[in-house]
Amino acid sequence: MSDDGNESRDSKNTETEEKSSPTSPSHAVESKIDVLLKPAGDAPIMKKKKWAVDRNKRIGWVGEFIKKYLKLTAQDSVFLYVNQSFAPTPDTEIGSVFDCFGSDGKLVLHYCKTQAWG
């Protein structure tokens, strides 16, 4: 019988912990990075240039996002560059790139349809 009481107390503790977990807007903002997308070469210009992207998203995800936003075909390529100099690998996390190359609280990525730098 005491085991049943412990289970109900454990479930109440779990519910309390879930309710008290940080869900404030400031916590959500910290997990996102401001990414500024700039066109290069023959790439179409995006109407919205600044996006809040989860830190754990990968560079490849950003490339696919750009393709969908610009309504490019599956055969079209999108190349992403950091600091107009090198292309990070598609499996690199945005958070890692931001930590190394971000400035002024944002990460600037240049995109184009053909290889431009590096």
Rg, rounded, reads 21 Å
CATH architecture of the domain at 31-112: Roll
Task: Report the average pLDDT across residues.
Answer: 81
Structural class: alpha+beta
Shape: globular
The helicity comes to: 25-40%
What strand order characterises the main sheet? 2-1-4-3
* Count of alpha and pi helical runs: 4
Main CATH class of the domain at 31-112? Alpha Beta
Q: Please summarize the sheet with the most strands.
A: 4 strands, mixed
Order of helices and strands: HHEEHEHE
User: Got a strand count?
Assistant: 4
Q: Remind me, CATH topology of the domain at 31-112?
A: Ubiquitin-like (UB roll)
How much β-strand is present in the residues? Answer: 15-25%
Descriptive notes:
The chain has helices at 2-20, 25-30, 59-69, 94-101, and strands at residues 32-39, 50-54, 79-82, 106-112. The protein has 118 residues and is an alpha+beta fold. It has a domain at 31-112: Phosphatidylinositol 3-kinase Catalytic Subunit, Chain A, domain 1 (Ubiquitin-like (UB roll), Roll), CATH 3.10.20.90. The protein is globular. Mean pLDDT is 81; it is low at 8-29.
Quick structural summary:
With 118 residues, the protein is of the alpha+beta class.
SSE inventory with pairings:
Elements: H1 2-20, H2 25-30, E1 32-39, E2 50-54, H3 59-69, E3 79-82, H4 94-101, E4 106-112
Parallel strand pairs: 1-4
Antiparallel strand pairs: 1-2, 3-4
Biased composition (Basic and acidic residues): 1-20
Membrane topology: Peripheral membrane protein
Function: Ubiquitin-like protein involved in autophagic vesicle formation.
